[in-house]
Amino acid sequence: MKTSKTFIYAVRSLLQHKLRAALSVLGIICGVMAVLSMLSIGEGAKQEALRQIEQLGTRNIFLKATSLTTGQSLKARERLSRGLGFHDVKLIQRGGLDVRDVASLKELTAPVIGTTKDITPQIVAASSNYAKIQKLPIAQGRFISDQDIARRNLVCVIGDNVAHSLGLQRITKSQVRIGNNLFRIVGILERQNFKSDKSSVVSVRNYNDMIFIPFGTENAVNRIPENKNRSESELSEVVIQVTSSDHVSQAALAIRRIMEVSHGGVEDYQVIIPQELLRQLKKTQRTFNIVLGSIACISLLVGGIGIMNIMLATVLERTREIGIRRAVGATRKNIITQFLVESVLLTVSGGIIGIVAGTGGVWLISTMAGWKTAITPLSLILPVVMSLLVGIFFGLYPAYVAARMDPITALRHE
Questions:
Q1: pTM score > 0.70 for this model?
Q2: Residue 210 main-chain phi, psi, to 5 deg
Q3: What is the spatial distance between Cα 195 and Cα 307, in angstroms, rounded to a whole number?
């Protein structure tokens, strides 16, 4: 009964000064909203980056051709580096430890007749195992086969956006003109979830806008090189699949050594290891969360200081009341409990309101700014717990001041 009476008395005391209590709670509400928003934005960014990295495959290692400056091109010719090519694929297959499979890709540029203006298909020549390694599901038909490459069949596999742009419902007897030649469509990829973001931690291909043709048919396409130096490379990308994710680091060391020897130390290629990116991302995210949490906690501390100021003012206003309570038998512990409960009520109620308002704020940020956000149980529980601790920490001193008052002096206070 004593606990319930203390709680009821605290509520009544706060309701006697509604405006002052509301202004005190406002600081806590803003602080909780800041904490929730910061954590949700950070978690959303983390999930989006994880999705992009996992889409590349944690068992895969990527080699990508890079653009060279004039000086780098001269150095490459001096050291007889031919750029990224099929010779690298053969070397990796023969000498790469724990290598399960290797796929290759060559980017081409040519006009595609019949597509709408809102899409510019990316044309690539690909090996037959590329879809398997990258786990690209086929909605209709099939992917490029070894027979297509051997016979140089003018066939292609198109992405979902390309199919819709061409107005295709079925692939039966469908053709598309790429450059000066007609390519028979033998497959359509399933639609992939893709979100273009310039700030992404890694570049992910938009397979919805891509057209795959077999290696050997590049000459049938009127290519327009995007970069003179880059066109020297036979391949734009090589994907190496390792037998197990535990062997990725070991395989990467071997592949780096093979490439370094093959290219004479010329870095006309880039090595991308999604597993290492994933590990680095998690490390960076922890630091990011600490920074965001610290910034948001400052808002709560500011709100806590406001609570302390209000409680100290309340103690002075209720000095005579404190004297009367002490005169009729209230102990110092009772006085401390009374004011501490009032402080905690202010901060916890502000925390709950802040959670509700913060959830709406997170939704507004996601809608207006287009950022990916994610509200986790931690982002909901942590602000409430922090507001409770702020109430206790900043309420203790005013409660102690009230309890230390001399009863006789307090009764004489006007």
A1: no
A2: -105, 150
A3: 44
